[in-house]
Structure formats: structure tokens, C-alpha cells
Amino acid sequence: MEVLVVGGGIGGLATGIALRQAGHEVRVLERAAKIAEVGAGLGIWPNGRRALAALGAGDTPGLPVRRLHLRSWRGRLLSEVPLAELKRRYGSELIVMHRADLQGSLLEILGRHTVQLGSEVIGFEPSGSRVHVTLKSGRHCDTDLLVGADGIRSTVRQRLLTDGEPRFSGATCWRSVTRFALEEGTAFNWWGRGGEFGIFPLRDGSVYWFGVQNRPSGEAESARGRKADAMEAFASWPEVIPAVVQATHEGSILRNDLYDRPPVGRWSRGRVTLVGDAAHPMLPNAAQGACQALEDAATLGTSAQSGSIEEGLKMYEARRRHAANAIVSQSHRTARLVGSTNPLIIGLRDLLIAHAPRSVVWRQLESMMQPS
Ligand SMILES: Cc1cc2nc3c(=O)[nH]c(=O)nc-3n(C[C@H](O)[C@H](O)[C@H](O)COP(=O)(O)OP(=O)(O)OC[C@H]3O[C@@H](n4cnc5c(N)ncnc54)[C@H](O)[C@@H]3O)c2cc1C
């Protein structure tokens, strides 16, 4: 069967590989003129690593996180995520990768010639037993299966579900990668008033950091630039935080407002389906968006190995939708707790985290690690 995948992000590249492995003829249409190398890190949990291994990308370089400390913005240790237990039960750790390494590895396996750059899809319609796809350039093509992997503002989703604009979380996120000395294998996440900050070690003596703060959507940057804005936002937090921002090159700092969408009851119609952020965009609080996209890809591949396309898509959704939607909701709830500015709620939140029985913490993690 012929498959067109719209979007060459992590979800689209992975889907291309999985459907090729299932014996199909794949083309990926990407609107950008080149595959952008986003300079940030990515936490890949055992469920994402399992999917990567199935796609033949299990050896993508990354650094295992040995300890992950959750602290209050005043520096007090609230909890330690049970990562050693994760490895014992699921055979792999939480790994932090450069996004560019992951994209490069997927692109290498898929083959650059499979990705058609500068190809923006603007619409599609069923045409007999095929799907008729229209590109911005005015070109058209037909395919047996169309997969929308075109991110949170997906054109394919818009046509399929017409569910409007994404939902703004009320927060913005600065993030970057920089050289910085951090205790080997130890990662930190501080929760504060109206925001959070995280620092994760990467494999080459650098670290990935992110800082989230409540801000209005589309807020303009100050004339002093992103670095000064981020420094100011976290000036009164533990001193390692302003220090890591200070050590960062201004031009390498990304800033994005954070959005998600409420979960929906279907991702497919006829011979068209969605994967990754196009299907279930989530706030980054569970660090699972890319892991879920990889799982979608691997599952779609195995679901489309036999039977009709419609049956395959039904199986894919049945195996993936509940799990991914649950993480969308969980991430949304966590983001609200992290973003609280109410001292009472913050006090209670920190108390609960500090005293949560291990079984509760473990149940939350475990629900995300189960195979689809
Ligand atoms: C701050 C932050 C931190 C995160 N941290 C983590 C983490 O630690 N772990 C984790 O697992 N996830 C994390 N995520 C989530 C993760 O980044 C995303 O879920 C994942 O990258 C989604 O990949 P995707 O391929 O579905 O979408 P995208 O990466 O958005 O890719 C979509 C692609 O489609 C292309 N496109 C769009 N429209 C069209 C069109 N009409 N025609 C053709 N091409 C089109 C775009 O150019 C783009 O290349 C984080 C996200 C954020 C914002």
C-alpha cells in the first residue's frame, strides 16, 4: 500500500519507518525547507525507548539519569523519582537525548530521499478507495493511507475533526542546551510559585534546561532579550538556576508558549489518521509527548501489517487512544498544580509530594510505561 505521512518531526519520521517496516511504500511530506535541528533536550522514558528499539533506533545516543530530585523553589528536597526501580521493572532508564540526535537517527534509518521537503499539505478528500491530497504548491497526489503527523496545529486534524485552536496553558517556556558542570547523572526539577525549572545532564558535558512561568499568550520579549528575561524570571530561585541561564548563549535560547488540546474520542476517519502532537498534543509536564509519538508510530506499524486499512486504524486507535489521552489529562492537571500561585495550594502540594507513599508515585509512573 502507498502511504503519505504529513510532517517530518519525530512522530512523522518514526511513522515512516514503522510503516516501511510493515512492508508499505512511504513518502513523508514536510513543509519546512530543511529538517530543523531544535537545540534542546528530550527525556525518553522506557516506553519511548521500547518503541525506539522496535524502530531500529535503540542505539540513539543519550545519557541515563541516575537520580531525579524534585525540589521546592526554595531548594528543599521534596521527593526522588524511583528511577532505579523503573530500570529493574522495565529494563531501561530515563535517558536524556539531544533532539537533534534523535531526529538524525530517525532520518538516517528512514532515508533522506523518503522526505520531500518544502511540501506543505493544505487539504485532502476521499477519492474512491484512495485519498486525494492537495499541496500549497498547487500539486496533488493520491494515496491509500494518509497519516497526519503535522503537530499541534495540524492541518490534517483540522480537516478531520474541525476542533478549532489549541488550548493555552497560561505559561511560557524558555529552554536551551549549554555546557555546565553538574553532578554526573543527577537531574533536578524545582516547583515554585507559578512555574518550574529543570536541569538534565546530557552526554557531552552539557546540560538541557527549561524554565516555565505563567505569562500571557504571545507576550513580547523585552528589549534586553530572552536570556535577561529568563534570568529575571528565576532570579530568586536556587543559585544554580540563574547560573545555568547565565552560562547559556543568548542565541540558543528557545521560547514557546505552552498549549495542549482536550482529549478526543477519535483520531481516524476512513483512510486518514493522526499520530503524535496532531492526535494528542500534551503539556510537557510528564515529558511524554515524543515518547507517545514513538509509541503511536510503532503501534500503527504493527496494526497496519494485515487486514484492511480501516481495520488496521481501528486496532491502532484501540491500542493507543486511551493511554495517550490519559497522559494529556494528567499533564494538564500537573501543569495547573505547578502553575499555582496560591500559597495554600502550594503548601499543600509540596506537603503531599513530600509524603506521598511510594506506591502512589509508582502507580503514576507505571501507567505510562505499560506496552500498548
Ligand atoms: C518545552 C517542551 C519540552 C518537552 N519535553 C519532552 C520530553 O522531555 N520528552 C518527551 O517525550 N516529549 C517532550 N516534549 C514533547 C515533544 O517535543 C513533542 O510531543 C514531539 O516533538 C511531537 O512530535 P510531532 O512529530 O508529533 O510534532 P512536531 O514536532 O510538531 O512535528 C510536526 C512537523 O510537521 C510539519 N508540518 C506542520 N504542518 C504541515 C503541513 N501542513 N504540511 C507538511 N508539514 C507540516 C512541521 O514543520 C513539523 O516538522 C516537550 C515539548 C515541549 C514544548
Reconstruct the topology from this structure:
Blueprint: E1 2-6, H1 10-21, E2 25-29, E3 41-44, H2 46-54, E4 63-64, E5 67-72, E6 77-80, H3 83-90, E7 95-98, H4 99-110, E8 115-116, E9 121-127, E10 130-135, E11 140-143, E12 145-148, H5 155-161, E13 167-179, E14 186-191, E15 195-201, E16 206-214, H6 226-233, H7 240-246, E17 254-260, E18 272-274, H8 289-303, H9 309-338, H10 343-355, H11 358-369
Parallel strand pairs: 1-2, 1-12, 2-8, 5-14, 12-18
Antiparallel strand pairs: 3-7, 4-7, 5-6, 9-10, 10-11, 13-16, 13-17, 14-15, 15-16
Helix pairs in contact: 1-4, 1-8, 2-8, 6-7, 8-9
- The top level CATH class name: Alpha Beta
Structural class: alpha/beta
Instruction: Give the N-terminus to C-terminus distance in angstroms.
Output: 24 Å
Radius of gyration: 21 Å
Overall, the morphology is globular
Whole-number average pLDDT?
95
Strand content: 25-35%
Q: Which spans of ≥5 residues are poorly predicted at pLDDT below 50?
A: none
CATH topology: FAD/NAD(P)-binding domain
* Number of discrete helical segments: 11
- State the major sheet: 7 strands, mixed
Q: How many domains comprise the coordinates?
A: 1
Small-molecule binders here are: flavin-adenine dinucleotide
CATH superfamily: FAD/NAD(P)-binding domain
The portion of residues assigned to helices is 25-40%
CATH architecture: 3-Layer(bba) Sandwich
Helix-strand sequence: EHEEHEEEHEHEEEEEHEEEEHHEEHHHH
- DSSP summary, beta strand count: 18
| Spatial ordering of strands, largest sheet | 6-5-14-15-16-13-17
